[in-house]
Amino acid sequence: MTPILGCRTAALANARQVTSKQQRGFTLLEIILVLAIIATASILVVPNLGGFEARTFNTQLRQAQSLLNFARRTAVISGQASTVSFSVIPIDEIGQADTDDGHTSLSNIVAQWNGAGVTLRFRDSTDREIEIEETTEVTFFPEGGSTGGMLLFAQADQTGVIDIDPFTGRVSSRDSEEEL
């Protein structure tokens, strides 16, 4: 009986070696599972990459409005004029931001906004409009007024407007304007 049992275990060991040598690839189920995981990840990631520029522009617009509101509050609380400086950083041929603006800060500048890749125009209370190539400033006074005007932001196909009331210094924004 021993020889039969010995042959049986030898045959089982030999069968295991043969099956282990044959299983070198992946099963269809494993491949489908990996493809499903990749498809799910791409559904979650790709839409977020598409709106990156839009979110960046909206963030820059909100930051500009926040700096203007901060300067307005600072002027009223401190009793001294407060200024926000807006600088446009041009994008050179390589796509890098050129940060060498050589601008010297004055003592009443409480905040500075730097926009990379954004076109900025300023429209004063007399509807005179100028494109900002380097720097412009908006000043708020302690009694609540300001230099006023309208800041017109544009990047690719997006536009945004920030209105500054010259009498009250109130700052308001909207996403776009028809006459840009």
Automatic annotation (TrEMBL):
**Location of the protein in the cell:** Cell inner membrane
TM spans (from-to): 26-46
Q: Gene3D superfamilies from the xrefs?
A: Glycoprotein, Type 4 Pilin
Q: How does it sit in the membrane?
A: Single-pass membrane protein
Q: Which InterPro entries match?
A: N_methyl_site (IPR012902), Pilin-like (IPR045584), T2SS_GspH (IPR022346), T2SS_protein-GspH (IPR002416)
Keyword terms of this UniProt record: Cell inner membrane, Cell membrane, Membrane, Methylation, Transmembrane, Transmembrane helix
Primary location group: membrane
Q: Name one GO biological process term.
A: protein secretion by the type II secretion system
GO cellular component, alphabetical, reads: plasma membrane; type II protein secretion system complex
Which PROSITE patterns does the record cross-reference, listed alphabetically?
Answer: PROKAR_NTER_METHYL (PS00409)
Q: SUPFAM superfamilies this protein is in?
A: Pili subunits
Q: Specify the protein name.
A: Type II secretion system protein H
Q: Which organism is it from?
A: SAR86 cluster bacterium
